[in-house]
Design brief:
The protein has about 220 residues and is α/β, with parallel strands linked by helices. It has 2 domains: about 140 residues, 3-Layer(aba) Sandwich (Rossmann fold), CATH 3.40.50; about 70 residues, Orthogonal Bundle (DNA polymerase, domain 1). It is about 45% helix and about 15% strand. It has 9 helices and 6 strands. The longest helix has 19 residues. The termini are close together.
Length: about 220
């Protein structure tokens, strides 16, 4: 693994299989306002930052304060719905995989809201492995722009070309590729990806270790 210096993980769909719960939370939250949540809305949600989703669902006329209030309330509902599903919702094999590769720099790059990041890392017990954590509010442009992943690499002191990113969304894959990183797709949300080096079902998939041995 002479060319590999860092592993960078997305969170929703990579660390935790949370997208089904996000879907349910948006349905329940939108129902409070008489808004029916369509499948097209769900598909637009994946890999997006919360303010982008709120503006999409509720309209560009909202003030920044209203956008924040909608997003914070929905995420509080998500955490309430997610908590009883843990630890069973964590992506299989992740903890042993990170432990095996803890000699590498480990980073997290996510569009998720900071309270969700704190919640998932605390519940997973994996927080101490991550030497750099960047969310969508710490950069100018969220995914699919490369900003998040470039910032993670900068904080890890690793050239982007020496980073491997694990992603489950098309926008996340696009962000990592635009950052000049190699990408492994995790099939929790989508089954196919464009531009990835490898696609795995979870971190128990033997293909990931075989591929990393050749990087």
């Amino acid at each position: 693994m002479n060319n590999l210096r860092a592993l960078i993980f997305d969170m929703d769909g990579v660390i935790v299989h949370s997208n089904p719960v996000h879907r349910e939370a948006w349905v329940a939250y939108n129902r409070r306002f008489g808004l029916d949540t369509t499948e097209a809305m769900h598909q637009r949600m994946y890999g997006k930052r919360n303010d982008q989703i709120v503006l999409d669902f509720y309209g560009a006329h909202l003030t920044p304060a209203e956008v924040f209030e909608h997003g914070a309330a929905k995420e509080a509902l998500y955490r309430e719905m997610m908590r009883p599903l843990l630890p069973g919702a964590f992506v299989p094999g992740l903890a042993p995989f990170i432990e095996r590769h803890k000699d590498l720099a480990i980073g997290l790059g996510t569009n998720a809201e900071p309270p969700n990041v704190k919640f998932i890392l605390e519940e997973s017990g994996l927080g101490h492995y991550f030497q750099a954590i960047v969310d969508g509010h710490q950069v100018k442009n969220a995914k699919p722009a490369p900003d998040i992943y470039l910032e993670v690499a900068l904080r890890l002191y690793v050239d982007p070309a020496h980073c491997v990113v694990f992603e489950d969304s098309h926008s996340g894959v696009a962000a990592a590729l635009a950052a000049g990183m190699r990408v492994v797709g995790v099939r929790t949300t989508y089954q196919t990806f464009e531009g990835v080096c490898l696609a795995i079902d979870d971190f128990n998939d033997p293909a990931i270790e075989q591929w990393l041995a050749q990087v």
